[in-house]
Prior knowledge:
mainly alpha
Amino acid sequence: MTAKLTLSIDTKVIESAKRISKARGQSISKIVEDHLKKMGQSEKSLKTKGSILELRGIGGKVSKSFNYKKEVTEYLERKYK
């Protein structure tokens, strides 16, 4: 099911979008829709992969002695030092 959406976009961006649309042989609506779908997938991916373990590249099972809160605290201290 599709629905109409009205957007306010800078005229230079619209002209560029028209050139891209023509070159690709796709409508601007299709290009925008595809882009928004990709953004939604990326957001979903970030939510499911957002653990500190994956950010630090640690894979597999975690030892029972792993202290998640300590790791987060140390990470944030380094980040905002």
